Amino acid sequence: MTTPHAGSRDRAVPARAVLSKVPQVTAVFWVVKILTTGMGETTSDYLARVLGPVPAVGSAGLLLAAALFAQARTRRYVPAVYWAAVVMVSVFGTMAADVAHVALGVPYAASAGAFAVVLALVFALWRLSAGTLAVETVAGGKREVFYWCAVMASFALGTAVGDLTAATLGWGYLPSGLLFAALITLPALAHRLVGLGPVLTFWWAYVLTRPLGACFADWAGVSRDRGGLDLGTGPVSLVLAVIIVAAVAWLGATERRRRAASTPHTP
């Protein structure tokens, strides 16, 4: 699914008006984003089982901090650095939602509501601070901080919503995945048919990528008695990681060609 850049009509910010540190929102963007959400789900489950919940959360938190630090140090969009940060947000965001439910006993419905409030608060503060939520203007500073806070909150919200339908409501992973696959088409339709704003439709779709990818990854990885294919969370994580690495390598090559073509050549 391809949606317009978030904020392309927000305060009339022209596309790529600044040297953005996030990718352009294309069909490839959405595909890689969904792959990272699936990998985050199964990797989180695998690490929690192998390392134990506390070491897994601690390790993921450290890797997330390192990935975000590397992203903050860049001066432009670097596919390998950006998507490494997204993967770690996915892994840690999954753990955050799972810890709230398993360790603290917070129902998924309650955590979903709480994460929705957090996300709305991030959006409100971001808009007040920057005057726009346009992702193409994320070039560092406060805008980048708000962007990654929104990304983390959206991942946690999507995780809670996916687990709510698949586990709490008992719909199962495959039916839930199919449901979110249908729902994620609605933002693009709402934008094109009724003119719903691009900021809302972008983040609406962004949140839905999390339960969409996670439900299908869980369906592939969990045991048959839980409604899955029993391929194992480790193997599923590995396969998704290989596909993501290949996709990001292709994006990196594409980005280098684009910059080379736009660089003036001196005779």
Give the count of helical stretches.
9
Give the proportion of residues in helices: over 70%
Q: Separation of termini? A: 42 Å
Q: Which residues form runs of ≥5 with pLDDT under 50?
A: 2-18
The overall number of domains is 1
Indicate the radius of gyration in whole angstroms.
Answer: 18 Å
The string of secondary-structure elements, in order, is: HHHHHHHHH
Number of strands: 0
For the residues shown, what is the average pLDDT? 87
Proportion of β residues?
under 5%
* Structural class based on helices, strands and sheet pairing: mainly alpha
Shape field: globular
The biggest sheet amounts to: none
Produce a short descriptive summary.
The chain is mainly α and 267 residues long. Helices cover 73% and strands 0% of the residues.
Structure in words:
It is a single chain. The chain has 267 residues and is mainly alpha-helical. The protein has one domain (10-262). Helices cover 73% and strands 0% of the residues. It has helices spanning 27-51, 53-73, 79-102, 108-130, 141-168, 173-183, 185-194, 198-221, 233-262. Helix 1 (27-51) packs antiparallel against helix 9 (233-262). The radius of gyration is 18 Å and the shape is globular.
